[in-house]
Amino acid sequence: MSHGxxxxxxxxxxxxxxxxxxxxxxxxxxxxxxIVSLQExxxxxxxxxxxxxxxxxxxxxxxxxxxxxxxxxxxxMCCAVTAAKREGAETVICASTGNTAASAAAYAxxxxxxxxxxxxxxxxxxGKLAQALMHGARVIALRGNFDEALELVRELTKAHxxxxxxxxxxxxxxxxxxxxxxxxxxxxxxxxLCIPVGNAGNITAYWKGFGEVGQAPRMLxxxxxxxxxxxxxxxxEAPETVASAIRIGNPARWEExxxxxxxxxxxxxxxxxxxxxxxxxxxxxxxxxxCEPASAASVAGLLKYGAPDARRVACVLxxxxxxxxxxxxxxxxxxxxxxxxxxxxxxxxxx
Length: 351
Ligand code: AN7
Hints:
The protein is an alpha/beta fold and 351 residues long. The chain contains 15 helices and ten strands. It folds into two domains: 178 residues, Rossmann fold; 96 residues, 3-Layer(aba) Sandwich (Rossmann fold). The protein has a six-stranded mixed sheet, sandwiched between helices. It binds ligand AN7. It is an enzyme of class 4 (lyase).
């Protein structure tokens, strides 16, 4: 199915369909397009019992880390890479805090395209770097931040026939809006959506998706305090946060995010690194859900600001916890060393 008409094409029956096939009626694609898919989307939506108790309302977690490369970017990337391939591009490029790079690299590999990624040197999580490299992307470590990287790839793609697959690419938003459609399919209605905001593509995409199925939950976007341009109302020149995925000071979808907030009677607020890490550990320890720090900003924001009047809230957990093993190890307990003898094991287990 994912390979269209190749000799080994799978014609249905193997697992769930990829996102483009599933939402074909809502997307600018035809079944005959050269669809590049890893069966992304259709992610779990789980009730967060402990967080529901703390907030006093029903809270559900949309587990986007369950996508093929471990983040929501796959929804947008299957569409952006399919469109690039349809247009005859041979190379795709992006600036990235990590997840976009990993996803672009994977979909480019699958589609037989070349991929280059510009990432801020030393500021992307280990898992994401490993993914981009394993999928064969050219990984360029920029001595600068994400905002500078995005500006540079925008310039570069004006002068070269290389497809830009950041969320300034409309196909990215088309793919990512399907997460909102899945929520509505499953829940019927919801009162509010909590979502981390970095470059502001995802909040824009969700708002578009909700609109297309006649829903308008409050959009509650959360930025890290050290990287909160939308909250401050001005660019942040040197963004800083433990949530490296959202270390962004000048979001490309600034206007769209603000209008999603205004139109939905929502809000965009800041959460501190400490609040992000508290939510990050709480989700892992008490809900059994391991997300990356940036993702936990959605839950941190809900715990901090609440969701007035809402009876049912969904929090988007945008990326998998395994993306960033270093932060996880810093934020968790240490291992218990043990000699290979029963008494020692007994003491270690029971002690
Ligand atoms: C886990 O990969 O910008 O507001 O270059 O990886 O749509 O930018 C990642 C963003 C939230 C913010 N959660 O989404 C990139 C990149 C995670 C992310 C966001 C990102 P946007």
